[in-house]
Amino acid sequence: MSLQATVTDKQLKMTKWTGAAAIAGCCLALRLGSAAAHEGHEQDAPAFEMHMLQQPTPAPDRVVLTWSGDPATSIDVTWRTDDTVEKSTVEFVPAADIVGNLEHGNVPICCTVEGTSADFASDRGPSRMHTAHLEGLRPDTMYAYRVGNGQFWSEWLQFRTAAAEAKPFTFIYFGDAQNAIRSLWSRVIREANLRAPRAAFMLHAGDLINSRNSDAEWGEWFGAGGWINGTIPSVATPGNHEYGGGAHVDDHWRPQFAFPLNGPPGLEETAYWFDYQGTRIISLNSNERLQQQRHWLKSLLDDPERPKWTIVTFHHPIYSAAKERDNAELREQWQAVLEEGGVDLVLQGHDHAYARSALGGPKNVAEGVRRQESNTVYVVSVSGPKQYPLAEAWDVSRNASGVQLFQIIHVSSERISYEARLATGELYDGFTLLKSADGQSELIEQIPPTPEIREQP
Ligand SMILES: [Fe+2]
């Protein structure tokens, strides 16, 4: 069948609301352009650009799971459509209940939730963002769900709720994606998914994109993750590129993610926390109001209900991995609280290089920098292709520059097992963290024989 024959009348009508290229790419756009010319409408076909593939349509896209509440009993799903879509419906059902002859796609749903939506004007034009909060879910249970408006639906996607108690789990941690997201970051998130297909969540330590408010870059980010984002919840903290010199986080951030609102006033969905199967996860916003967050962080660490492990993420590192970068004020505001509060792991980005410390940070510190013995391990990592030269000053356990990495972190009541892997999946760094009942930690180095990579940019 020729390409021309595949273009139906219905598709031609659809082009009224999408723009030709959004439906079938450049070939359809060019064909429609020539059709218009035949009808006497003298106009050139729009030149094809990649971002045209990201135009919103009535069908849901950019589907992403997050948590704003308890991961054992709730989940949030966010998606995008064009601004013609009025309804924000989620249908869901325990996945095991989808049985029988379903050849017509009629799934026996148990539950429907109506979410909310809001018009969203990006630099590429209008769209609508939809969010729904599902609650009352059974812990440790796989659910299937789809989002849509009753006419246009996503595919059925699946996720698993957290167990209500401490239980081993695995999560993935990414440093900055930021640049060439479609062409080069996509292989990292996909390899990570293949290596940890049942990860509980994916943690992004800021600078997910490069240009604040760039809808095309967010389109690349969602395209790279694809259906993984609708299956494994995301946890993200904003970097300086989500601020881009502005006073507020990227306009996409809060409409397109549904993170907890339990942070300090004014920092909702950028500073937040939740407990997952025996571990407290805290996102701090290292872009603003550091002092305000210091007090909030201390209250979270003083909580007598705090589980055994605490993992904190923020963007700008306490100890910078890259040359000629330093965040002295951040260290001044947060380091003592993190370490005296017994935070186990600090997961950071920003420096476009890799540096992982032993307990208590680098073994040496620059003049004027205070180092204290502690149980805290600091990591700076980068998942995207932009790379900076390493700082030479810090004596850390493992360094890298010039390579994209991702981290797979296994957590159980006995230990945290950490793996940093190259984009190929090859193991690059590893350690195990143990903690006794009285809070004393022991770090067992498990660095593989892979030679240190220093492809200095
Ligand atoms: Fe950054």
Number of strands: 22
Global geometry: globular
Which percent range describes the beta-strand content? 25-35%
Compressed to H and E, one letter per element, the order equals HHEEEEEEEEEHEHEHHEEHEHEEEEEEEE
List ligands, each type once. Answer: fe (ii) ion
Count of individual helical segments: 8
Largest beta-sheet characterization: 7 strands, mixed
CATH superfamily of the largest domain: Metallo-dependent phosphatases
Structural class comes to alpha+beta
Query: Please, how many domains?
Result: 3
Strand order of the largest sheet: 11-10-9-19-20-21-22
- The end-to-end span amounts to 49 Å
Q: Return the average pLDDT rounded to an integer.
A: 90
- Under CATH at level 1, the class of the largest domain stands as Alpha Beta
CATH architectural name of the largest domain: 4-Layer Sandwich
Instruction: Report the CATH topology name of the largest domain.
Output: Purple Acid Phosphatase, chain A, domain 2
List keywords for this structure.
457 residues, alpha+beta, seven-stranded mixed β-sheet, globular, disordered N terminus, binds fe (ii) ion
